[in-house]
């Protein structure tokens, strides 16, 4: 009895949490796409500032990580493929796994660590310092002022970062291909292009956009739900990271399944 | 709020009727800057006789008028301050910064003498 | 609106009056809870337009809660709040935001935006809600900072200011929209006496020059008697006195005198209750 009760309570909490995410996302989407046409201001300069922080400043670390992930993928693929004397398939294995899965996923992990956590910390600190309250008494809507610029920056920059990560991953795979599998740059790129289809790349980027969306929603929601006292900010930040990773994996599972079912055969 | 201008000799008088607030002070600012900057009016006098309330946006617009007129080496004066308007200028320590007169005649005459000490 | 029975020990005892349009603020039967715990137990008072109301009361008596409810940060569990004649507690977000443009609030902690300079903090409401030219806004920001004695600090970050300076910057920000109604939560707590006197002076001037209606929460009795037209004394979420400043000075009401004469709270719990409290037989205050 107590057990089923607690499952019930956990389910309701979970649904309430997802409801909160949906409300934040809806509010932010409205502030970005609808309110500007009703004469309300959108904070474009804040969005650009966020886009720099989320996207441009993440380029070095994303490049490095995805280059190595590409190389690791190539090594693992080669380990299996060389048994069949099929090392020439390494390029396509890297290209497909990178664009469909690991490019978006590794980018999401980087973005969670850099931006999702900082959203929670920023909003959490503002909550603790009564800045959010102050904002409300000044008739400034925290969602359109704080969340909307992050939302826009994330749905644009996470796919861009992902596209770059895909490219760096291919380079990483190529580095292995050249060193250990008798490829030349020309033949490696050639093999990659033959393996890639637009559908794989686009579904990967679409997924990345969804990741950007949930990372924003979770980070901001954790920030807004920060309790009293500054030690709560640390708790919010940690929980934003953990919950974002979980949410990204869930979104990944669902969207990959949908893409599989709707894919051209 | 209504705002209109009339020429009296070399000076231009800006008559403001109604409250000057956050929401309509851009209009006042535009009229003032237009007169001082574009039309190069040598003396601009703002008539505040029928302004009951002026908030700090209104005050800031007058400050801008004064600044631009100084830059242009023209002159800028106020007259007919209500008690509240005077209190606002005192609160913001601007009463001594502006050339302030009680009546239109004084304001016009004050412009004639170049080194008139502004009436308090 | 069900009128409270008049209380005998209430100076200027009043049953809830009909809401007058000439009042900047009218509060009727206001009850506020945090979770299960009720903090304000049916509060009634009026702030006439253009006057300064001081809310006195010991720490934890619910002063900040009252102020937060008046500006719409806490939802009352029942009761009504009228700001400039308009119902404020139970309206839509958009209507509330419209009213809030005419309200300024200075928080106990300052609550400046830490990621913006002092000048940007003061300019923000003007940039967001008006069509003023940036150069006009710049002048207004300098005017406001000058009024609180912070001329020249517009490019400082809040973290670079002392506690008292933060508080004054927060007052400048609360003034930026030239509000008709201004709320201060402990404006001079923790400030040195000269600065605190300056803030009292500013409050008096704002009332006179801009005809602002002002509500100030404070412990500082001297300051309260200087700036207030009316005062209320809040004790454990109940108003125990509501009177003009002169009436208050001469009040003989014990709880008022106790507060004004700074007499420590007498022990209200008996020995048995005290023992039970120590041994945990009386449950602690529920959150
Ligand atoms: N956010 C909150 N959650 C729960 N209880 C609170 C909260 N804020 C204040 N309280 C409680 O409400 C009571 C009144 O607090 P407050 O209004 O801050 O008093 P004052 O400002 O008069 O010192 C206190 O007992 C405090 O513990
Ligand atoms: Mg308090």
Mind explaining what this structure looks like?
The complex is a heterotrimer of chains A (265), B (120) and C (287). Chain A has 265 residues and is mostly helical. Chain A has one domain (2-262). Chain A contains nine helices and no strands. In chain A, helix 4 runs antiparallel to helix 6 (142-180), helix 4 (90-128) crosses helix 7 (185-195) and helix 4 (90-128) runs antiparallel to helix 9. Chain A is elongated, with a radius of gyration of 21 Å. Chain B has a single domain (2-112), classed as STAS domain (Transcription Regulator spoIIAA, 2-Layer Sandwich), CATH 3.30.750. Chain B is built from four helices and five strands; from the N terminus they run E-E-H-E-H-E-H-E-H. Chain B has helices spanning 25-38, 56-71, 83-91, 104-112; strands at residues 2-8, 11-17, 43-50, 75-79, 99-101. Chain B has a five-stranded mixed beta sheet, with helices on both faces. In chain B, helix 1 (25-38) runs parallel beside helix 2. With 287 residues, chain C is α/β, with parallel strands linked by helices. Chain C has a domain at 6-102 and 179-279: Rossmann fold. Helix content of chain C is 35%, strand content 23%. Chain C has ten helices and ten strands. A six-stranded mixed beta sheet of chain C has the order 6-7-8-3-9-10, with helices on both faces. In chain C, strand 9 (230-235) and strand 10 form a beta hairpin. The longest helix of chain C is centred in the last third of the chain and has 18 residues, at 193-210. Chain C starts with 22 loop residues before the first strand and ends in an 8-residue tail after the last helix. Residues 63-64, 108 of chain C line the site of magnesium ion.
């Amino acid at each position: 009895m107590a057990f089923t009760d607690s499952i019930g309570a956990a389910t309701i909490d979970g649904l309430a949490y997802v409801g909160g995410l949906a409300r934040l996302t809806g509010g932010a989407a409205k502030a970005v796409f609808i309110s500007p046409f009703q004469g309300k201001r959108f904070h474009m300069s804040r969005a650009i500032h966020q886009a720099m922080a989320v996207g441009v400043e993440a380029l070095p670390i994303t490049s490095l990580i995805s280059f190595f992930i590409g190389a690791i993928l190539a090594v693992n693929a080669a380990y299996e493929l060389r048994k069949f004397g099929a090392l020439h398939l390494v390029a396509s294995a890297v290209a497909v796994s990178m664009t469909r899965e690991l490019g978006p996923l590794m980018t999401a992990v980087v973005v969670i660590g850099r931006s999702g956590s900082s959203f929670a910390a920023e909003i959490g600190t503002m909550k603790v310092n009564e800045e959010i309250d102050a904002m409300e008494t000044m008739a400034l809507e925290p969602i359109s002022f704080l969340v909307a610029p992050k939302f826009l920056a994330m749905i644009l920059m996470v796919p861009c970062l992902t596209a770059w990560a895909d490219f760096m991953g291919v380079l990483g795979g190529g580095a292995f291909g050249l060193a250990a599998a008798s490829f030349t740059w020309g033949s490696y790129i050639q093999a990659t292009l033959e393996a890639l289809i637009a559908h794989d790349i686009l579904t990967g980027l679409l997924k990345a956009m969804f990741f950007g969306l949930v990372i924003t929603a979770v980070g901001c929601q954790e920030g807004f739900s920060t309790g009293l006292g500054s030690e709560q900010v640390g708790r919010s930040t940690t929980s934003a990271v953990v919950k974002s990773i979980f949410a990204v994996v869930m979104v990944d599972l669902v969207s990959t399944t949908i893409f599989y079912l709707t894919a051209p055969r | 709020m209504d705002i209109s201008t009339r020429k009296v000799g070399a000076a231009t008088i800006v008559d403001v009727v109604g409250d000057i607030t956050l929401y309509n002070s851009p209009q006042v600012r535009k009229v003032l800057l237009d007169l001082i900057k574009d039309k190069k009016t040598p003396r601009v006098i703002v008539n505040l006789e029928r302004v009951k309330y002026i908030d700090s946006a209104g005050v800031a617009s007058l400050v801008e008028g004064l600044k631009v007129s100084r830059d242009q080496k023209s002159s800028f004066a106020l007259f007919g301050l209500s008690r509240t308007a005077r209190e606002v200028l005192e609160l913001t320590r601007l009463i001594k910064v502006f050339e302030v007169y009680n009546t239109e005649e004084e304001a016009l005459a004050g412009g004639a003498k170049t080194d008139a000490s502004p009436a308090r | 609106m069900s009128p409270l029975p008049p209380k005998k020990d209430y100076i200027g005892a009043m049953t809830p009056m009909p809401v007058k349009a000439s009042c900047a603020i009218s509060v009727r039967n206001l009850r506020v809870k945090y979770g299960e715990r009720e903090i304000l137990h049916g509060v009634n008072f009026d702030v006439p337009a253009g006057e300064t109301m001081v809310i006195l009361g010991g720490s934890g008596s619910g002063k900040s809660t009252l102020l937060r409810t008046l500006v719409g940060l806490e939802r009352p569990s029942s009761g009504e709040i009228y700001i400039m004649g308009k119902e404020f507690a139970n309206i839509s977000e958009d209507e509330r935001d419209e009213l809030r443009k005419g309200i300024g609030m200075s928080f106990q902690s300052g609550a400046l935006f830490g990621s913006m300079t002092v000048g940007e903090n003061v300019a923000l409401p003007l940039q967001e809600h008006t069509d003023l030219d940036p150069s006009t806004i710049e002048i207004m920001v300098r005017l406001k900072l000058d009024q609180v004695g912070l001329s020249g600090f517009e490019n400082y970050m809040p973290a670079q200011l002392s506690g008292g300076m933060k508080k004054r910057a927060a007052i400048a920000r609360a003034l930026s929209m030239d509000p008709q109604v201004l709320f201060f939560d402990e404006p001079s707590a923790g400030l040195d006496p000269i600065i605190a006197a300056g803030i009292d002076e500013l409050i008096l001037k704002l009332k006179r020059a801009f005809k602002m209606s002002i509500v100030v929460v404070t412990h500082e009795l001297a300051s309260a008697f200087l700036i207030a037209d009316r005062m209320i004394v809040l004790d454990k979420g109940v108003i125990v006195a509501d009177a003009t400043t002169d009436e208050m000075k001469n009040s003989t009401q014990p709880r008022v005198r106790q507060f004004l004469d700074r007499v420590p709270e007498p022990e209200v719990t008996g020995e048995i209750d005290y023992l039970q409290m120590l041994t945990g037989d009386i449950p602690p205050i529920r959150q």
